[in-house]
Design goal:
This protein has 127 residues and is mostly helical. It has one domain. The protein contains five helices and no strands. The protein starts with 13 loop residues before the first helix and ends in a 12-residue tail after the last helix.
Length: 127
């Protein structure tokens, strides 16, 4: 049995997850994929997290975890699109990993980032 990949486990930070969602949108647009389903998924992530990005705070109580769960669902959908559309690249994969780390889902992010194109030997990955 293989050990889980190294990963960072960070506290929930929806504002920073929103910033990363915006970076993902920019990366996809700058690479000419404005019309791709992956870009639509990233825009949906950005829209969901915009209120927290602007306020710099997680919502109170259980709402934070409902938003987190929805954001994670959208992130998984994004990775499915990146993979099926062949859009993976190292920087995009790094952003996916960072996004999931901000959602307190570091292990999942370490796994999904590889599907989104992150180089497994990247110096940005946890050792």
């Amino acid at each position: 049995m293989n050990p889980p990949p190294p990963h960072f486990q960070l506290p929930l930070n929806l504002p920073h997850a929103g910033r990363i969602a915006r970076r993902i949108v920019v990366l996809l647009r700058n690479s000419g994929h404005d019309d791709a389903p992956a870009c639509a998924a990233a825009l949906e992530m950005e829209s969901l997290l915009a209120p927290y990005y602007d306020s710099e705070e997680n919502p109170p109580g259980p709402r934070a975890f409902r938003v987190r769960d929805h954001a994670a669902l959208l992130g998984r959908r994004l990775v499915d699109h990146i993979e099926s559309e062949g859009l993976g690249q190292d920087r995009l994969g790094q952003c996916v990993r960072n996004y999931f780390e901000c959602l307190e889902l570091g292990l999942e992010g370490a796994q999904l980032s590889l599907r989104a194109g992150e180089n497994p030997r990247s110096i940005q990955r946890p050792a």
